[in-house]
Amino acid sequence: MTIDTKQDQRLIILDTETTGINPREGHRIVEIGCVEMVNRQLTGRNYHVYINPLIEMEQEVINIHGLTNAFLSDKPLFGQIANEFIEFIRGAELVIHNAKFDVGFMDHEFNLLRKGLPLTHDICTVTDTLKVSKDEFGSPKTLDFLAKHYRVDKLVDRTYHGALIDAQLLAFVYIEMTRKQSALNLTATDDVSDGGDVNAIRRLPENRTKLKVISASADEVIAHNERLNVVAEKGAKPLWQK
């Protein structure tokens, strides 16, 4: 399985937190976190909601995501957020780590409403980075493994495994995972109707117009250094310093 990265493709990096591991046993979604990406760039547009599952969670589950029964008691029911959630993901490519789990819960919630709502694959397409990791490394890898492998594990504080937090981390993993597929297309675009080799190296004329060099302003240099300090505080380094 490979990741098809198309220009201007709208991706939604998604994760959920639940009351357990099996919706058939009555477990429900308690948190949804989504991060939007277009053309492999984070847009800053997210979708995040906590949900009242109407059932009590065991302490073992609470210890994983940190969401208590008391905290969720006044949150909206899934039926109250279903339509806005569907509209946010509609037509996008969902990127999920272990998609079978999250999609299974989403479809279970849609079915419980009995309002003729579409299932996930009717709303959007899905890419499972767990399956992609199996193709890449020979066996399925956890999100923690991938984050450490691609050196983005320090970019997000994961004291608890929150849905939005894990979606943000997966977004950074996805960027690194697809980096080699986003290489510039250096194929010549000149007219080759004369039978020339489209992939042949073409020399630019020596008398061509010189490229204009635009230097960063003082404010831009300051902003750049401030951003590097933030990265350093997270324990990471820019790619060019590795």
Rounded Rg:
22 Å
Average pLDDT score: 86
Distance between the termini: 29 Å
**Proportion of strand residues:** 15-25%
List keywords for this structure.
single chain; 242 residues; alpha/beta; five-stranded mixed β-sheet; 9 helices; 5 strands
What does the model show?
It contains nine helices and five strands; from the N terminus they run E-E-E-H-H-H-E-H-H-E-H-H-H-H. The protein has 242 residues and is α/β, with parallel strands linked by helices. The protein has a five-stranded mixed β-sheet, with helices on both faces. Strand 2 and strand 3 form a beta hairpin. It is elongated and about 70 Å long. The two termini are 29 Å apart.
Task: Describe the structure in brief.
The protein has 242 residues and is of the alpha/beta class.
Write the layout of secondary structure elements.
Layout: E1 10-18, E2 29-38, E3 41-50, H1 59-65, H2 69-72, H3 78-89, E4 93-96, H4 99-113, H5 120-123, E5 125-128, H6 129-137, H7 143-149, H8 163-177, H9 218-233
Parallel strand pairs: 1-4, 4-5
Antiparallel strand pairs: 1-2, 2-3
